[in-house]
Amino acid sequence: MKYPHLFEKGKIGSLVLKNRVVMPPMGTNLAGPYGEVTDRQIRYYEERAMGGTGLIIVEFTSIDYELGKGMLNQLRIDEDRFVTGFHRLANAVHKYDAKIFVQLHHAGRQSNSILTEGKQMVAPSAITCAAVGEEPRELTNAEVKELVNKFIKAAIRCKTAGIDGVEVHGAHGYLINQFISPNTNLRTDEYGGSFENRMRFLKEIVVGIKEKCGWDYPVTVRLSVDEFDEGGQNVSLSKEISMYLEKIGVDGIHASCGNYNSMDKMIESMMFEQGWKVYLAEEIKKVVNIPVITVGVIREPKFAEKILEEQRADFIAIGRGQIADPDWSKKALEGRDQEIRKCICCLSCIRSAMEMNVKCSVNVRAGRELEFPEMKPIEEKRNVAIVGGGPGGMEAARILSLKGYQVTIFEKDNKLGGQLNLVTTPVAKEKMNWIIDYHRHEMERLHVDVRLGTEASIDKIKAINPYAVFLATGAKPIMPNMMGMDLPIVCDYEDVLLERQAFVNKRIAVIGSGMVCYSVARKLAEKGNQVILIDVPTATGGKVSAPTRMMLINRLRNNHVQIIEGKKLDQILPNSIIIKDKMEEQSEMNVDHVVFSLGTQAHNPLEESYREHFENVFVLGDANDPSSITNAIKDGFEKAYVLEALATNIEKVKEPVGSF
Predict the structure, then answer these.
(1) Which of 383, 400, 524, 626 is the most exposed place for a label (fewest CB within 10 A)?
(2) How do residues 63-117 score in pLDDT, each as one tens digit?
(3) Which strands form 562-565's sheet, in the order they lie side by side?
(4) What are the b/e assignments for 547-586, b being 16+ CB within 10 Å?
(5) Domain annotation for the chain: domains and CATH numbers
(6) Whole-angstrom Cα distance, residue 493 to residue 520?
């Protein structure tokens, strides 16, 4: 076995797990409008169980739907009528020898009046969370005791439903965390003040669950080992908390971090290195004998194996990694590491879950498993040509190959990946390479004919007699229409990232915003140039979260990049630029070069001529609508999946075989 520690049996309390892989709780918004378990939610979790994970901890589930909600369509277990849904979910997971916990949750001051239908939120103390901006009211002593009972009753319902254990959510700034943290608990009754009093709420919940469900019924607690919030819970306090929890009967600690005020640490962007917060679990493991679960951008089986080998943790939480690839565990067990579709930390799942329901940039089926059942192979072998080897083109090639088509990719560059190759920030570049490498390996595994350095002429396409042609020609830089654009000092971001020109010891103005723009500014600064970033709003810049943007801007400042905000470029002169502020006041800056990084526009030069020669022509990704890797892969997947319906001549298909 390639990873003996990762696939060794483990125990949480008396419960035996088949391996050390845990799917941690992650909100999906897949529940029904009243918080009920839905068929698509069951299928979503069932696929992860089928994929080999040892333990699934179901997303945060409300024990008080009136005042404790944390998401619009949040699961709930606050009434008996929800037991049946969880029973169906447990049965679906148990079929694959996986175990299932439910995370019990109350948002406290991190709810909001929209979720509570205008009612004021509640908390241990009337202290406003800066990230939410709404003042909660302080819970009465009687209300605190009633909430303890609600947690206990929720656990009883879970056990009745056949759920194997519960996780009490004491992390991420939610209600229990608010009681524990000295920063948010200023009470003067039995639930505030001393360490023992601040722990009383959680103690009564844990002990109550054990007394009602049995001392052998597993209970874990998720902790923010460090809130990364001034005055809040830190590593030293969390060690004391963990030792206390072990004494009162808790069966395991799930080590996380952060709260809504430190969201960038709680849910990391692609700027964080793999396994960056494993040290938090390691610190807890030093002081307890119960198992500790670690989490934090763990993407590779070999990385997870090393954590266990070095005894830094007892279980590995693979969260977004299992959204991206529900077969993560199975592929790792079978030594098929290159086939794992790794999460790239783009936060698409987080944004989509908050807006509608969970979606994934690299796995279109995530949350849509019922919509895209198993693949239906075509009856007759046919050829398909794809022009462009970016993420959309490669995803289309992958799906078409799985369906039985013979696929040929024509890529004019000497490498696959398209726009993804333009990311240069080291930590983010690693993530982009993950998805490029995955698709490149899939092209080899599925015997896709990849022709690099090849222009897709009509004659070359005709030579393969295609049933369909997919145009995935990508995008090109947006260049504004303004005076001076024809001057030799004007460049675009590709000139920098593809090193078409030499930029050394120059004074350079970079215009734009977003990941690529900031990569351009950083690269120029690292080459010894004097860089001025005129940060202007762009569509691509709007997709970067505020915490990530601040992190990138601070790194640019550390590289001595001058940041100018609130101004716009008005005119380009032979050796300078004119910029204007909001009051239309002008100022002139001497520069040697002006580099535009304003985003992209569709590059689709072939469609019109191709339609004259081929019957089924489809435009994919950026060539159709330049926006993001999410949309490029989605477009490639969907059009390939329904090709037979889109095409002029609809084919007959066989029964489903295999998965994808």
Answers:
(1) 383
(2) 999 999 999 999 999 999 999 999 999 999 999 999 999 999 999 999 999 999 9
(3) 490-492, 593-597, 507-512, 530-535, 562-565
(4) bbbebbbebbeeeebeebeebebbebbeebbebeeeeeee
(5) 10-355 (3.20.20.70), 383-476+602-646 (3.40.50.720), 479-539+547-598 (3.50.50.60)
(6) 7
